[in-house]
Specification:
alpha+beta; Immunoglobulin-like; C8orf32 fold; seven-stranded mixed beta sheet; five-stranded antiparallel beta sheet; 31% strand
């Protein structure tokens, strides 16, 4: 999949690895952005029906204050039953021109600071039935014998969930390099991660999740789009994002879901301690599902962040997409809220649909 406009690319998880300047504390706080996500697909000649899906931002740890959808046909909001992720969907009959789906939203993302010191829980205190999905092996998150052996070795003598998770965080940090020079990166392929020790955020966090689950610690995946580090004031100019960013969370009784962002810690070692239990606000969360389908059929997706398209039931490649944002300063947000121009998003019944008609 390729962006519509390759200029002004923001370096992200899917972009090239580069040496980064140190990030200051004032660049980690909450952010409000107005984003636009566009997908465009040109159907083959003679196509009778095109379907296009585009993921929508979730509402945990961020406020989706506005959400507007438009496209070449009527747009419906669907909620995926496996993950509770939301997607926008449209279908166009006998399209004679490119099919387009546009999403715009105003999102305020909070900086997260989990109360990790409040948890003294042990793995035995975790309700296994309640977190069965976050403890399971899956096609995308493979828990093999080598993963189990590493998890046992690294967590030995660590009495609490938090201490064990921290040991696994440290091990992944030491084992992995943010480097996409070896083919096979970006899939979260566990044997690749263990053998090569290189990759992007998908590889870092899939490996961490597998190790945590092998230790009996529930862990889950988050993926979205990054925005540039900064104080959120900016100049109001439009920025283009070239690729996704992902991170992970583990569950510790007494602390709740605790975020970790090991790939960002690897790129910014001065933030290694920060990114265990804390999460900067320069991101927008979109989905959590792995091995999901957009309509209950077709090949499951490793993760869902980019558009999905089908022509007469067959998957289409070459879907063009573009993700842009601009910072909304607090003063502008306050003015618009006072005027009644910004209201909280109210989810309607369409958001509960299980699958496409």
């Amino acid at each position: 999949m390729r962006p519509l406009l390759p200029s002004l690319l923001l370096l992200a998880a899917a972009g090239p690895a580069v040496a980064a300047d140190a990030i200051g504390r004032d660049a980690l706080g909450s952010r409000t952005v107005r984003l636009a996500y566009e997908a465009r697909v040109t159907p083959p000649p003679g196509t009778e029906r095109v379907e296009l899906w585009l993921p929508l931002p979730r509402e945990e740890n961020q406020a989706v204050r506005e959400l507007k959808l438009s496209g070449s046909a009527r747009v419906t909001v669907l909620r995926l039953p496996e993950s509770a992720d939301r997607v926008a969907w449209l279908h166009a009959e006998k399209p004679g021109e490119p099919v387009v789906l546009d999403v715009t939203a105003l999102v305020t993302r909070q900086e997260l600071r989990a109360p990790v010191s409040a948890s003294r829980a042990r793995v035995a205190d975790i309700d296994l039935a309640a977190y069965a999905a976050e403890l399971a092996s899956s096609p995308s998150i493979q828990i093999n014998d080598e993963v189990r052996a590493i998890a046992r070795r690294e967590t030995a003598g660590k009495p609490t969930v938090v201490a064990q998770a921290h040991a696994l965080y440290d091990w992944v940090f030491d084992h992995m390099q943010y480097d996409k020079s070896v083919p096979g990166w970006g899939l979260g392929d566990i044997p690749y991660c263990l053998k090569v020790g290189k990759g992007n955020c998908t590889d870092f966090h899939t490996l961490f999740i597998a190790l945590a689950r092998a230790s009996g610690i529930p862990a889950r995946w988050d993926i979205g789009f990054p925005v540039a580090y900064g104080d959120g004031k900016g100049d109001g100019g439009e920025q283009t994002v070239s690729g996704y960013h992902c991170w992970a969370e583990f569950y510790a009784p007494g602390a709740g879901w605790v975020p970790v962002d090991i790939s960002e810690a690897r790129k910014h070692p001065e933030l290694k301690d920060y990114f265990f239990g804390n999460l900067s606000g320069n991101r927008v969360l979109f989905t959590r599902g792995r091995d999901v389908t957009v309509d209950g059929s077709g090949k499951p997706l490793n993760y869902l962040i980019y558009p999905v398209a089908r022509a007469d039931g067959k998957e289409l490649s070459g879907v063009e997409w573009k993700f842009t944002y601009r910072d909304v300063p607090d003063a502008e947000l306050t003015r618009n809220t006072a005027r009644g121009e910004i209201a909280p998003l109210l989810a309607g019944p369409a958001a509960t649909l299980r699958r496409t008609p």
